Amino acid sequence: SEGCTWVCDVREKEVLVSVVDGAERTATVSGPPEQVLLWLWGRAGDEAVTFDGDPEVISEFRARLVECTR
User: Fold this and answer.
1) What is the chain's Cα-based Rg?
2) Among residues 19, 28, 51, 60, which one has the fewest Cβ atoms lying within 10 Å of its Cβ?
């Protein structure tokens, strides 16, 4: 998406999303914008995107997304 990066800060009762370049990252989910959006909504499998960093962080992030989008 034109080189933009969104940072998600997942907390106990909220998720904060901001556009920040150069931010420190624990884990990343990347890919073509359409595929990332589909993955975020659970409409594309893990093979549609690329993961980097701590797999536990990505797993927890995905679990929170599932919880929030029921």
Assistant:
1) 12
2) 19
Alpha-carbon 25 to chain mean position: 11
* Closest by CA position to 43, among listed 35, 51, 53: 35
The pLDDT value recorded for residue 56 is: 93
The DSSP line for 2-62 is TT--EEEEE-SS-EEEEE-TT---SEEEES-HHHHHHHHTTSS-GGGSEEEE-HHHHHHHH
Alpha-carbon dihedral 52, 25, 41, 46, rounded to 10 degrees: 10
Please tell me the pTM assigned to this model: 0.74
